[in-house]
Write a structure and sequence with these properties.
By secondary structure, the protein is of the alpha+beta class. It is built from two helices and four strands, in the order E-H-E-H-E-E. Belongs to the sulfur carrier protein TusA family.
Length: about 80
């Protein structure tokens, strides 16, 4: 995983909570900062891809590791 400015552990939360928590966290961050989100909901892969496209934030990285999904989102 690349460098990030803030981390959000959304493990155990189901849709739409990981997205809602990420949105709230990103709103408090400065432009171009990177948020690392950890989720366990398999649906979060599609959700974060759609979230990035809808909000204009950049989904820098998306990967699955040990049953957890990791996302790096760069705030626009």
């Amino acid at each position: 995983m690349a460098d990030f400015d803030q981390e959000l552990d959304a493990s155990g939360l189901n849709c739409p909570l990981p997205i809602l928590r990420a949105k709230k966290t990103l709103n408090a961050m400065a432009s171009s900062q990177v948020l690392h989100v950890i989720a366990t909901d398999p649906g979060s892969v599609k959700d974060f891809d759609a979230f990035a496209k809808q909000t204009g934030n950049e989904l820098v990285e998306s990967k699955e590791e040990g049953g957890k999904f990791h996302f790096l989102i760069k705030k626009s």
